[in-house]
Amino acid sequence: MEGTYFRKGFGLKAEIEGQLTADYHSSVVDLLRANEYRLAVGPLTFRLAREFGFCYGVDRAVDYAYETRRKFPDRRIFLVGEIIHNPHVNRKLRDMGVEILLHDPDHEFDFSAITPADVVIMPAFGVTIRDFDRLRAIGCLLVDTTCGSVLNVWKRVEAYARDGYTAIIHGKHWHEETKATASQVTRYPDGRYLVVLDMDEARLVLDYIEHGGDAPALAERFARAASPGFDFARDLERVGIANQTTMLSGESLAIAAEFGRAMERRHGAEARAEHFRSFDTICSATQERQDAVEQMLAEPLDVMLVIGGYNSSNTYHLAELCRSRGVRTYHLEDASGIDPAAGTIRHQPAGRKQEATEPGWLGTARVIGITAGASTPNNKIGETIARVAETAGVLPQLEAAVAA
Fold first, then answer.
1. How many angstroms separate the CA atoms of 361 and 338, rounded?
2. Which residues are within 8 A (CB) of 150 and not within 5 positions of it... i.e. 6 or more apart?
3. What amino acid positions are annotated as catalytic residues?
4. Closest to 303 in 3D by CA, of 319, 291, 316, 317
5. Distance CA 400, CA 385 (A)
6. Is residue 169 over pLDDT 50?
7. C-alpha span between 400 and 178 (Å, rounded)
8. Strands 77-80 and 98-101, sheet pairing
9. Residue 208: closest CA among 271, 270, 259, 252
10. Which residues are within 8 A (CB) of 195 and not within 5 positions of it... i.e. 6 or more apart?
11. CB 17: neighbour CB atoms within 10 A?
């Protein structure tokens, strides 16, 4: 694979730095950082979470994609799915001539257009073992931007499969990362996995572990979230816990604890280690962003804005965390969701796939909390703050503060 597989970039960071700054930098965000993440603009006070936006893994993936275009200016470049879940970053790559391969989650990617002369970028989420092997067979040049935190989870579930433990994965079975993680168990003929979305789904499995029950009903419920041929009577004897790196950390830890207790009750405390394994595979960046929001919420906020792609799992969970603390929260994709002239905000409400538009959303709010998912570039945060300032009639003051 030497010469056709790259995982450490091409040493072109200096050459792409100017383009990255032009595409994603924000002077507004710089000002907030310089002012201890607070900024008073007229009657408004903006508070920015101390950890927000691009994480190391996203930075790395975007850097490698830009380096790839610079390294191979005359070659066709394909990207397996979205590089990250942010529409603006993916649009930038399209504008640079990168062809993004999209697909129906129930079907395989179509690689028929790819030739050995082409370059293929694998996204931060990684790809399944099958897709990797298919690309290797084509003989194209592969640029692997898979996040290191994701690789750590892969190693964990592979070890579970090797040692005869079923991987219980807290995640979204349809998400690219979870699909890639689950595929790691297929390195072993008897590898098994089961994906649980939340504590409610976990409890269905836990109840079966302790008390038995209707296995066919469970098989139907988890038909798309379990390895082929999964047998609830056979495959829950020994389990190991892992998670999609962008889930709510508290829920992942709680699910792991419940599985440990269930195994102990069923098999006895002395046999716990034989039937249960768990390691903390929560991404540090996800944890840090959730912790930063918790820290913000220790002081009163009138409203919270969470900025990022609607299909971004970590952004969704940041909004979920804010709502769970009783704060009026809006998850918006970018600044275009705020219409200063109309005084409206377009956002994705909790538990819905469709946007909603709310008039008069700012009202008498004076303390505005801001955070963003790990795939949201700084310029989209700054643009959103500017739209809020414009809605409140204080944009000139914000612009003056930035220029000072």
1. 10
2. 57, 124, 125, 126, 177, 180, 181, 245, 283
3. 177
4. 319
5. 14
6. yes
7. 45
8. parallel
9. 259
10. 169, 170, 171, 172, 173, 178, 182, 222, 225, 226
11. 12
Per-residue exposure over 355-383, b if at least 16 CB sit within 10 Å of its own CB, e if not: eeeeeebbeebeebbbbbbbbbbbbbbbb
pLDDT digits (tens, 9 = 90+) for 103-132: 887 789 999 999 999 999 999 999 999 999
pLDDT band of 279, cuts 50, 70, 90: confident
| Structure confidence by residue, pLDDT tens digits, 228-255 | 999 999 999 999 999 999 888 889 999 9
Q: With cut-offs at 50, 70 and 90, classify the pLDDT of residue 212.
A: very high
Q: Which two tokens stand for residue 233?
A: 């009577």
Phi first, then psi: what are they for 131, rounded to 5°? -65, -40
Nearest residue to 344 (alpha-carbon basis) of 305, 307, 391:
391
327-338 pLDDT tens trace = 999 999 999 999
Question: Who contacts 212 (Cβ-Cβ below 8 Å, separation ≥6)?
Answer: none
Are the beta carbons of 225 and 173 closer than 8 angstroms?
yes
The three-class DSSP label of residue 174 is coil
Residue 353 — pLDDT band, cuts 50, 70, 90? confident
Number of other CB atoms surrounding residue 284 within 10 Å: 16
Residue 90 in tokens:
């993916």
Confirm if 373 and 307 have CB atoms less than 8 A apart.
Answer: yes
Of the candidates 335, 288, 343, the one whose C-alpha atom is nearest the C-alpha of residue 314 is 288
* Domains contained in the chain, CATH given: 12-55+285-403 (3.40.1010.20), 56-147 (3.40.50.11270), 149-282 (3.40.1010.20)
Pairing state between β 119-122 and 77-80: parallel
Q: Which helix (H) or strand (E) holds 80?
A: strand 77-80
Exposure b/e, 55-74, CB count within 10 A at least 16 = b: bebbbbbbbbbbbbbebeee
Q: pLDDT at residue 1 above 60?
A: no
Give the Cα separation of 352 and 79 in Å (integer).
29
